[in-house]
Every structure is written in C-alpha cells, then in structure tokens.
Amino acid sequence: MKKLILLPFFLMIFLSSNSQTYVRNNVYFELGGASPYYSINYERMLLNWANFNIAARVGVMYIKWDGDFYRGAPIGLSYLKSIGEKSYIEAGLFYTFIKVNEEHRKGNGDTTGLPNITYDEFFNQRLGFQAAYRHQPRTKGFFWNISFQLFATRENYEFINDPTLTPRLGLGLGYSF
C-alpha cells in the first residue's frame, strides 16, 4: 500500500525535474522563411525527449508595400534531431495563408482632387517542406535558426499555372524559455 501511495509522489518529482531540464517555448522573428517577407512566431515543443522532439509553430505577418496590404499566418509542425548540446537539425511541413488587398487608384476622385481608391482582394497559400539548422539552449536563452524551404503556391484556391516548387531561405532570431 505504501508503494502505491509513494508512486505518484515520485512520478511528480521525476516529471517536474525533467520539465525544468529543457525549454519548451520559443518566440522569434523570421526574415523570409514561410512568409513572403517576415513573420513573428511562437513555437511550442509538443514532445521534448532527449533525441526526439516535435514542435508546432504559429506566426503572424503584416506589411503594406506600394499601397498593397499583405496579412498572413504561417503554421507548421517540425521534427528536431539533437546533434549536440545546443544544436538541432530540423525537418518539417508548413502552411502559410496570405490575404492580399491590392490598391487601385482611379481618376482624380471627387471634388477634393484625391484619387478614388479601391482594393481587389485575393488569397495566396503556400504549402511546403522546411529543413533547418537551429541553435537552441536547453535552458532559457538566445535562439537562432537558418532554414531552407521548398513550397508550392496557390492563388484564390487554385495552383498558379504549374505547381512547381519554389526555393527560399529564412533566418530566425529569438528567445527560448
């Protein structure tokens, strides 16, 4: 009976000591990568074992470029293989949804002389594979990664002409906690 009572106690001690060993959260800025220009991401380690790690990420991006508005949300799932104390090789899949509002200026507008502005809205989607090297401490600290993506793009829910794979690089800088 004493063994049965002590088992949950020792299990809680073991699990709490294991959970303090490795960080589970990352917040980072990614230039390029899964989004057209940049994204701000939150990543959570779903499984965090010594040599087998699964991470999920979600991000946001917003930019106004030459009158057009781009809003997006990359999401992804990655497998991380430890190759050193703070080094990992990463392989994963990502999906990025991008909403674009293109600005069109027509004529001289009303009596104020300002042009009439209208927007065309369309959607852009990217589905792809990512391979990366990442430097991430096992305790709190600075995080960075460099990644290579291959993705197919769809506009308005149809693949653009030929759904060929497009290569892209990304650089992420952030904090692990």
Describe it.
By secondary structure, this protein is mostly beta strands. It has one domain. 11% of the residues lie in helices and 65% in strands. It has one helix and nine strands; from the N terminus they run H-E-E-E-E-E-E-E-E-E. Strands 1-2-3-4-5-6-7-9 form an eight-stranded antiparallel barrel. A hairpin with a 4-residue loop joins strand 2 and strand 3. 20% of the residues are buried. About 4% of the residues have low confidence.
Task: List the main descriptive attributes of the protein structure presented here.
177 residues, mainly beta, eight-stranded antiparallel beta barrel, 1 helix
Short description:
By secondary structure, the protein is mainly beta. Helix content is 11%, strand content 65%. It has one domain (43-170).
Shape: elongated
Number of helices: 1
Poorly predicted runs = 14-20
- The Rg value, from CA coordinates, equals 22 Å
How many strands appear in the DSSP assignment?
A: 9
Task: Estimate the helix proportion, in percent.
Answer: 10-25%
The largest sheet, given as strand count, sense and whether it forms a barrel, is:
8 strands, antiparallel, barrel
Averaging pLDDT over every residue, what do you get? 82
- Element order, helices and strands? HEEEEEEEEE
How large is the share of residues in beta strands? over 45%
| Order of neighbouring strands in the sheet with most strands | 1-2-3-4-5-6-7-9
**In terms of quaternary structure, what is this?**
single chain
Q: Please give the alpha-carbon distance between the first and last residues.
A: 39 Å
Number of domains: 1
Based on secondary structure, the structural category is mainly beta
